[in-house]
Structures are given as structure tokens and as C-alpha cells.
Amino acid sequence: MIKRLFDFMISIISLLLLSPLFLCTIFGIMYSLDKPIFFKQIRPGKNEKPFRILKFRTMTNERDSNGDLLPDEKRMTKTGDFIRKTSIDELPQLINVLKGDLSLVGPRPLLMEYLPLYTEEQRKRHLVKPGITGWAQINGRNAISWEDKFKLDVWYVENQSFTLDMYILYKTFYNVIKRKDISASDHVTIERFKGNLK
Q1: What is the CA radius of gyration of the chain?
Q2: Which residue positions in the chain have pLDDT lower than 50?
Q3: Which of 193, 183, 185 is nearest to 80 (CA)?
Q4: Global pTM value
Q5: Mutual angle of helices 19-32 and 78-85, in 10-degree steps
Q6: Which pLDDT score is estimated for 151?
Q7: What is the 3-state secondary structure (H, E, C) of the chain?
């Protein structure tokens, strides 16, 4: 209850304070990418219940001759790269927090297609509401392996507390300022999860 009230209040305050940045980002995306402004995708929430996540769009929708999307590296624009590296693309998720889909802190909501690939231990990450940031994000984010990321997520679920959440929020702010661990060293986005090695 306290966590939900905290999420609600901080998301409202943040949306008000960051409204000028929202407007500048919207105009920047319209200039470099045109519409739509937002990237929307169905993700699993608490207990794997689906919800629609919001992000600022950072890539074009360019496709090859077969109609398939080009690799992320070829679709990323300079504006999109800046938005992603400064984590501005995550800000619309404050709306998800306001609605109750997300918490400020929790395991990051991944793709629906990953659900059948988790082990029973990894599936514990869905026992709590997902978050904009989490224990895995301040301990490597996209620069660590999927297996390590899931271990950190499960550790958070088993050790969550308000004090831990405050620490994660502080470290998230620090890492964003330092632009630390935004992506894996050889990809603009993290590689897809393909299941656990047998």
C-alpha cells in the first residue's frame, strides 16, 4: 500500500516537473522520425498479466525487400540514440506507473514471447509488479547476461523493501547521469533471450 502510494505521488510530480522535457522530446521525434511518437508493446505484468507499455520511439520502421524490419543498428537515428542513451525513452512509463501497470522499482517487463522460456526459478520475477528500474538495472543493465539479470531479479523479489527501493532509485539516477551500462558493447539494444542453455 505504501509502495503504491509512493509510486502514484512520485509519478504525478515527475510528470509535472518533466513536462517541458516531454514536449521537447515529442517535437524532436516528430522532426526526425515523424509519427507515431510513442512505442507501444504488450508486456507481462504482475502474475504475467499483459499490459501495454509506453516508451518514446527511437527507431524508424524501415524494412528490407522482404518486408522485414532492418536491424536495430540501421534503424536507430541520431535523435533516437540520444534519447536512448539518456534514458529519456523510458519516461512515458511514468504514465504506466500512474495507471498501476508498473511500479517505479521492480524487475523490468520483458517480451511476452519469453514467458515459455523461463525456468521455474526465473518465473519468480513475475510475482511482483514490474518496474521502470530494478536491481538488475543498477548492477549491469544491458551489459550483463540474461542469466545474471534473472538471478538479480529473483534476488530482488525475495529481498524487496522500501529501503532497497530508495537505494535502487538513487543508483538509477546516478547511472543515468553517468550513462552507464546503456547497452551491450556490440549492440545498440540487448540481444533477444533465446532460452536457457541445457
Answers
A1: 17
A2: 184-186
A3: 183
A4: 0.86
A5: 150
A6: 95
A7: CHHHHHHHHHHHHHHHHCHHHHHHHHHHHHHHCCCCCEEEEEEECHHHCEEEEEEECCECCCECCCCCECCHHHHECHHHHHHHHCCHHHCCHHHHHHHCCCEEECCCCCCHHHHHHCCCCHHHHHHCCCEEECCCHHHCHHHCCHHHHHHHHHHHHHHCCHHHHHHHHHHHHHHHHHCCCCCCCCCCCCCCCCCCCC
| CA max distance for the chain | 52
Quote the CA–CA distance of 8 and 31 in Å, as a whole number.
32
Q: Three cell numbers at 160?
A: 524487496
Contact 66, 146 (CB under 8 A): no
What confidence score (pLDDT) does residue 67 get?
74
